[in-house]
Automatic annotation (TrEMBL):
Cofactor: heme
Protein name (Swiss-Prot/TrEMBL): unspecific monooxygenase
EC number: 1.14.14.1
Top enzyme class: oxidoreductase
Family recorded in the similarity comment: Belongs to the cytochrome P450 family.
PANTHER family: CYTOCHROME P450 2E1 (PTHR24300:SF356), CYTOCHROME P450 508A4-RELATED (PTHR24300)
Locations listed in the record: Endoplasmic reticulum membrane; Microsome membrane
GO molecular function ontology, one term from the record: iron ion binding
GO biological process per UniProt: epoxygenase P450 pathway; xenobiotic metabolic process
GO CC list: endoplasmic reticulum membrane
Chief location bin: endoplasmic reticulum
The keyword Endoplasmic reticulum is annotated on this UniProt entry: yes
InterPro entries: Cyt_P450, Cyt_P450_E_grp-I, Cyt_P450_sf, Cytochrome_P450_fam2
Gene: Cyp2h1_1
Length: 158
């Protein structure tokens, strides 16, 4: 028996990275490992009572110590990671040849530059990138893990 959880999370994260960031990471890359660890830690932290209280009473909980501080810190670190990639993409952008989701979004930002009501901003790009990365990694890897468990329990299905 073995637990394929880490392998699945790394594989799914890398696939999402290649779509969103235009590049995949080596499985031994320290930044990538740290990123996956922060996401995993946040998933575990979200089960705690303090985090649930933080979701309802953020202003009050900001004043109190607890695991919600670590969750916020991890989120800020992941956000900083994506912002570094976005800045790099802005420097190396070739509008005629988008490499990934970020380049496509940056191209749309450029098209919408004169529109005051445009939702295509760097902040929206950062949040959308985080949503794709965080939500996609968690849900897809969990779904694959459950699929493997079901196939293991019912081998006659295969």
């Amino acid at each position: 028996p073995f637990n394929p959880g880490n392998f699945i999370v790394h594989a799914v994260s890398n696939i999402i990275c290649s779509i969103v960031f235009g590049d995949r990471f080596d499985y031994e890359d320290k930044k990538f490992i740290k990123l996956v660890e922060m996401i995993d830690e946040n998933n575990k932290l979200q089960e705690s009572l303090q985090i649930q209280l933080y979701n309802f009473f953020p202003t009050i909980m900001e004043l109190l110590p607890g695991p919600h501080k670590k969750l916020v810190k991890n989120f800020e670190d992941v956000d900083q990671f994506t912002m570094e990639i976005i800045r790099e993409h802005q420097k190396t952008l070739d509008p005629s040849c988008p490499r990934d989701f970020i380049d496509a979004f940056l191209n749309k930002m450029e098209q919408e530059k004169g529109n005051a009501d445009s939702k295509f901003t760097v902040e929206t790009l950062s949040r959308t990138t985080l949503d794709l990365f965080l939500a996609g990694t968690g849900t897809t890897s969990l779904t694959l893990r459950y699929a493997i468990l079901i196939l293991h329990k019912y081998p006659e299905i295969v």
